[in-house]
Amino acid sequence: MRHFLTTADWSRAELQAMLDDARALKGGLRGEDLAGKTLGLLFFNPSLRTRTSFEIGARQLGGAAVILEPGKGAWPIAFEPGAVMDGDEEEHISEVTRVLSRYCDVIGVRAFPKFQDWSKDREDRVIRAIAEFATVPVINLETITHPCQELALMLTLQERFGGQVDGKKFVLTWTYHPKPLNTAVANSALMIAAKFGMDVTLLCPNEEYLLDPRYMDAARASAAEHGRTITVSHDIDEAYRGANMVYAKSWGAIPYFGRWPDEKPMRDTLKHFIVDEAKMAKTDGAYVSHCLPVRRNVKVTDAVLDSPACIAIDEAENRLHVQKAVLRRMVRP
Ligand code: CP
């Protein structure tokens, strides 16, 4: 039994096999791999795409999905080992996971960081605890990485670049957003682009917005395997110049986790990190995407989102196809 917690646990060849399967499923391949099986989806945070696409994907594969929202229709859950549960939590993750493992054939988990203390958030305790107690495969639906989004992004890039993504200039740009957001999609975009041999530039306003060294180092290791390096840039013009792909995302500055009032004045000076037509004009006719949801005219302008270069809707559709491929891989004997 293997979990799908992070693409770092899977080789490029294994991920490519899932992408090939996703492409076949998108092309009409019908699978009944989940016939008689049930997917249990634990959502600790809101979702439109992940929830809908997993529920529909399970149904299309002949199975069913059950959505659970702990603390809202399901009991609040404690996670700490040895917890003295005299607060709001009614049950411990050890019971929750072992019970769900008796009912379900796969468990999916969305559990965002708390944004208070990155040294704790980076341990990814919720999904790690669930993976420890589960006796069925566990899929990450976004915690501190978002591996299903990674596969959807890569499938979309392979479609657009005719399968030849190696060497294409991929710019992951931080964008302004009025709140500090999860670093998960940024970590993931960096890792998957590097893993598939792209020429990756991380554009962010300053050193405070660098990603956790775990993901920077993983991307650098993948880049080195392809004879490349990861470029970090704080220069908008230089980063966009010659890009083949621009991936927009906002995230919180890790050193300021738990100190939002301290980050806010710095962030308020960074509204020019919006993706707009002038910046896109500096690229080599790049495509642009975002994991969604996206705040129009804050992170990306209307003109860019509504242009033919924008492939965000394709990427969102591809969530369905790649997740069906992941599910087929998870239930394979
Ligand atoms: N991209 C993504 O995961 O979307 P949702 O948050 O709507 O699931």
Relevant terms:
single chain; 333 residues; alpha/beta; Rossmann fold; 5-stranded parallel beta sheet; 4-stranded parallel beta sheet; 39% helix; 14% strand; binds phosphoric acid mono(formamide)ester
Describe the structure in your own words.
There is one protein chain. The chain has 333 residues and is an alpha/beta fold. The protein has two domains: 7-145 and 319-330, Aspartate/ornithine carbamoyltransferase (Rossmann fold); 149-315, Aspartate/ornithine carbamoyltransferase (Rossmann fold, 3-Layer(aba) Sandwich). Helix content is 39%, strand content 14%. It is built from 13 helices and eleven strands. The chain has helices at 12-26, 49-60, 93-103, 118-121, 125-133, 147-160, 184-195, 213-225, 236-240, 260-267, 277-280, 302-305, 312-331, and strands at 38-43, 64-68, 77-78, 91-92, 106-110, 138-140, 169-174, 199-203, 231-233, 245-249, 287-289. α6 (147-160) packs across α13. The termini are close together. The protein binds phosphoric acid mono(formamide)ester. Phosphoric acid mono(formamide)ester (CP) binds at residues 47-50, 142, 149, 291-293. Residues 47-50, 142, 149, 291-293 line the site of phosphoric acid mono(formamide)ester.
